[in-house]
Amino acid sequence: IYTKVLYDYLDSLVLQGENLPAFIVANGDIVHHGIQSEYDDYNNFVSEIKANYGLTVFATIGNHDCFNNGYEIFLNEVYPNTSYYKFTSNKISYYFLDTGNGTLGSPQLFNLEKNMKQDLNEKIVFTHYYFIIDRLNISALSNTKERAILLDLFNKNKVRFIGTAHSHMYNVHNYGNFFELCNNDYGKHRA
Fold first, then answer.
1. Helix or strand or coil: residue 165?
2. Percent of the chain having pLDDT more than 90?
3. Closest by CA position to 86, among listed 74, 94, 78
4. Coil vs helix vs strand at 26
5. Which strand (E) or helix (H) includes residue 86?
């Protein structure tokens, strides 16, 4: 995530007088081994983004973030200090799901269903694990029943976009009312 590509992109927007994004999403695997020094590096990166561009970085938790007690470090040190949350801006609700272990689990799923059914806004969802990706479903959310419930929930509750990352390969899947984008692994571009 600490990429020259990101800095170059943001700098180009500033130089061209374009608007910066409202915020940045770090969609899981913000560290590799889940150790304190890696989290320190991540938080230094977040501080640089805030200082240089005035942007907030929101994170989802990925499987690598959970290694070596990393889950507790994530909760204590990564803004906004929780692994499942939502906020609303300009009549769009942004949901950040905890799929760090490959599933939501019943309590989070129950809470998500309740919140989405009460939320009349259009929605964007970020989750580390993806739902469907061509050629590589072995790394998707592990509980197929949970996946089906989520896709149905999203279809019925104005979800327009799902941002995922786990495979580190670019892929788009269209579900009709919404689509899922699995982003590339930009780690290879680290400065």
1. coil
2. 70
3. 94
4. strand
5. strand 85-89
